[in-house]
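The passage that follows is intended for readers who have already worked through the single-chain material. We present the inputs for a multi-component assembly, then the predicted structure in tokenized form, and finally a short commentary. You are encouraged to pause after the input and sketch how you expect the pieces to fit together before reading on.
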Amino acid sequence: MPKCVIDGKEVEFSAGENMVDVAKRAGIEIPVFCYHPGLTVVAQCRMCAVEVEKMPKLQTACSTPVADGMVIKTKSDKVKSHQKSVMEFLLVNHPLDCPICDKSGECDLQDTSYSYGDSNTRYTEERRTYLDLDMGPVIKKSMNRCIHCTRCIRFGDEIAGIREMVAIHRGNSTEISTIDGKPLETEYAGNYADICPTGSLTLKDFRFKKRVWFLKKTKTICEGCSRGCSVELHQDNNVIVRTIARENKEVNKYWICDEGRFHFNSVHNQHRIVAPVVEGSHSDWATAIHRLKTLSANQTVHVLIGTDLTNEEVSAIKMALPKASKTSVFSHFGTPGLTSAAKDEAADALLKRKSKTSNLHGVEKLGIAGFEKFDQSAGLVLVFSGGRAVLPDVSNLGKAKVIGVGVFTDEEAKTFAAVLPATTFAEKSGTIVNFMGIEQKLQAAIRPVGSSKQISEILMLWQNQQGSEGHSNG
Amino acid sequence: MLVKAKTSLTQRFYIFDIVKGLYITMKNMLFAKKVTIQFPEERRNYSNRYRGLHYIKATNGVENCTACMLCPTVCPAECIHIEAGERPDKEKYPVKFEIDVLRCCFCGMCEEACPKDAIKLSNIYEMTVTQRTIYEKDFLVEQRGSK
Ligand code: SF4
Ligand code: SF4
Ligand code: FES
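Having made your guess, compare it with the prediction:
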């Protein structure tokens, strides 16, 4: 492998890699603004300039491929004074908005200015200001904070596949805007906020909700579709406030779609049932479990398994059911009109899949077939759901009763004999399998909301009450 | 065994000590300057650096605070609770600004952290209440301090 020397450290690299990536691997940070590993390189912010031996001028690290035997200095006086000047230039028009800016605390501009810039400003003239047009429901624009790195323009062009952000005017009056000031159209708009190195593009949904340094972060997987993008859930006080994308080269690179990004809102949906319900009225766990037990004993049970459950949950259900009922039939449900994993295909050119639940492929691997129609002999239909799977119509089943275990809204559970509230993807840990067959791990970000319990716990309570008829304080 | 300390005759004859004690008492009672004051009627002047009850400074009737959350971040007693919002004349302002003064340890770090010169500790030190009080924004925004 060819080698180069960065700040006196010998580093191996493979041909074609740029200096920023190679240095990062060696634990040396080169400050960047316009460079993003998922986008093309434009080298226009000049922040990443480094000194290379035998080259007369500073070189931009993001656009220069490393060559064998290169000696690179990232901390020489020449580089440092260059970084200071670039920072000063970038901050000439940047407002001192940090106290009200949502990016503050995780802002590339703020961090870089702190580590590489000067704490004084020599600029006393009036700063450039813009009027902001509305950018649609996802993104809030504050053009005054923009440093013209054009990451957003490139994201639209290269990743989202839609040219909607452009740079208009020139030089000092350059403005980044949507074409004709129209709202954003892409279904991946949230990524604009993730990649913008300043607070110029921020999420409307997250606006002023929390300062970022209060957030506790959990690495987990999105359950929005069968791709299973890597995400990070951010919560404070057991309330999730946002989702951001996590780098995963195989699955989602650096991006997630808006549907997945805002899916966490369903966790705190005010219509979600978070305490046991029996025959339409609030109840306690003992009564609900007892109800489940009496309705299932000596019955044929049709078990509907949501494809948003984890492998562990599905296996536990499959193990528990034969003991609890006479006979049981299993089928899975999730996306209307999609009954088998073989029919799951790409829903757009970037990430989205047809299956709107995360574990269709895993559930099917566990030997459960897609739901077609209700078993006529069933006396009880038992629905297990993680809240994402779309229920088949259960309102008209004749004599069969319906019990829901999982996450349901008031509306969905109207005709249920009982609801035993369980957890959503954000409250449980487990394994899910995405459409490529990659096993990924869900990690609980918050404690179960209300008095909801894990499905495994509910199954345990249920079995502990077996054979103790009439006893209802479990 | 108890060893008795040897005392001299003058020591045992303690009338001299009584006179000495009486002298000190009389001197302080009749001639020394008083250190206490008649509190509600008389008040002391505290230094400007005294750290008493909080207030939020306002400029032209608009609170200086922009809800940047630096004071709840720095507060060691975690007694400040702020919720931010937006209104036409101000991009970010505190919709809710509550201080649980009973928890406060009057360290003054909030005042130090504030980039907007908004939260201040006044000279007010009379804070007795009969039930737990959480001071709300409306109360705090009044110009109550002397600084
Ligand atoms: S809005 Fe953000 S991403 Fe776009 S050019 Fe400006 S700083 Fe870069
Ligand atoms: S004085 Fe100290 S304890 Fe009291 S509110 Fe301010 S930071 Fe918190
Ligand atoms: S990061 Fe290299 S020039 Fe912008």
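Commentary: The longest helix of chain B spans residues 15-30. The longest strand of chain B covers residues 90-100. How closely did your sketch match?
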